[in-house]
Amino acid sequence: GLPFSVISPASGARRPQIRFSRVDLPQPEGPTMATNSPSFTENDILNKVRWINDCENNKFLHYELPLDEDKTRAWFHKNKDRADRYDAIIEYDRNPVGVIGLLSIVDGRAEYYITLGESRYRGKGIARDASILLLKYAFDELDLLEVYLYTEVDNIPAQKLFEKCGFVKHRLDKNSAVNRGTLVDRFYYSITASEFRENSKGK
User: Fold this and answer.
1) Model pTM?
2) What's the CA gap between 177 and 187, in Å, rounded?
3) Which of 17, 27, 164, 197 could disulfide-link to 5, CB 3.0 to 4.6 Å?
4) Beta bridge partners of 17
């Protein structure tokens, strides 16, 4: 299975740990596969609410804000056993620093999301390393064929992250989402299993 943390042999630097939830995931051929990883728990809810409500994090997030703790707890209980999503916590030096995961898992495809919630951990390559770990898990363990995402055209830092991870920008979708009552344009990115493995050669 996927290692929860990676040590860079060149620098000795510790890379992020990803704590995955336990879910049953549909495979492209039809059967399901159970994973046995530590859970995304109720204890993570307060951090998620704080991260999403932070104005440094939510400019491009399409949530009904402010996020409410009780509603988020209800959301957790409603969604924790769903087979079409995969939620995880990013940990760095044993500290939870963000959320990452896959949504709409169906027919070998899934939508990626990430929020690095703790601002003091930005600029350390954590989001990139966590994204690579998740993509490796998606393609090598879950046998997904493609992972995709949407991002607003003004979210330049996110686009730089996605491109560093190997995502390819395919198109502009005009007026494809609503953010705080305003229609916004978004780019559509994706990466296939074969593209990811080709990018990973020699790394």
Assistant:
1) 0.79
2) 11
3) 17
4) 91
